[in-house]
Design a protein that fits this description.
By secondary structure, this protein is mainly α. The chain is built from eleven helices and no strands.
């Protein structure tokens, strides 16, 4: 069991630290390749949507059915699924749009940085780091729980979340760097915002481990499915389409679904 926990935590940590990759990309490249970003984000959305509806939701329903019976178990699965969506939507809406990294245009920040007040840019970057940290908390729990129940599934979800964390890291580092001219400060704050994922994993595990039954597993897993569906539809796909063409985003999404389907078939 300890090896499984360590493996799941490692996946969560790596996914969270992908925000640092976004920060590095921002420093090394003068311009983000919008087509590549669109395909990558679409791919990540496809992985998360497919695995949420086909794998995680079903596992949650099966676990709850063991405890409560088929019909009642299904009802609780649906309730927990939409509860997950409600919680992540509430978190998203509590963050003001200006400071919400999912509402920001990073390229615009970079282009207009010389015209903006440095203190305002710094505040924007700091609030972005805080907002990303808040959003990453439930994502960390999602990655951890998936890795704990099924290593192959956990790897797929960790990769998908890591891809979507890269532009978030850029959203934190860009305004801080242009406000302070310090690569070190921009990288550290971007890096720290990603640590909310392993913190979410640890917190979730310690809160739930004494109550870890088929019932709690099913509720958490169904909620995780809801969280991932919301992230895909509210963050990944809109951002993918903002950076590139509609068909590239959809192509990436279908590709992500296909890769996820094939990888799950390999482990049957």
């Amino acid at each position: 069991m300890s090896d499984s926990i360590l493996f799941a935590f490692s996946l969560t940590l790596l996914a969270g630290l992908a925000t640092g990759i976004g920060s590095i990309i921002g420093f090394l490249s003068k311009q983000v390749n919008p087509k590549m970003l669109t395909i990558s984000l679409g791919f990540s959305a496809g992985v998360m949507l497919y695995v949420s509806m086909i794998e995680i939701f079903v596992k949650a329903r099966d676990a709850l059915s063991i405890e409560l019976g088929a019909k009642t178990g299904y009802i609780w699965t649906v309730v927990a699924f939409f509860a997950g969506i409600f919680v992540i939507a509430l978190i998203d809406n509590l963050v003001p749009a200006y400071e919400n990294p999912h509402e920001m245009n990073t390229e615009k920040i970079i282009e207009e940085s010389s015209e903006k007040d440095k203190a305002k840019l710094l505040r924007m970057g700091l609030f972005s780091a805080l907002a990303i940290g808040i959003h990453n908390f439930p994502e960390g729990l999602a990655t951890f729980m998936s890795g704990l129940s099924n290593p192959a599934l956990g790897i797929s979800i960790a990769v998908a979340i890591a891809i979507h964390n890269i532009p978030e890291g850029l959203a934190v580092s860009a305004p801080i760097y242009f406000a302070t001219k310090s690569r070190k400060k921009a990288f550290i704050l971007s890096f720290l915002s990603g640590l909310a994922e392993p913190v979410g994993a640890i917190t979730g595990f310690f809160l739930l481990r004494t109550l870890f039954t088929h019932f709690t597993f099913g509720l958490v897993f169904a909620s995780v499915a809801g969280i991932m569906v919301y992230i895909s539809l509210d963050e990944l796909l809109p951002t993918a389409e903002e950076y590139g063409e509609h068909h590239l985003a959809i192509g990436g999404l279908v590709g992500g679904m296909l890769v996820m389907a094939v990888s799950l078939l390999l482990f049957l």
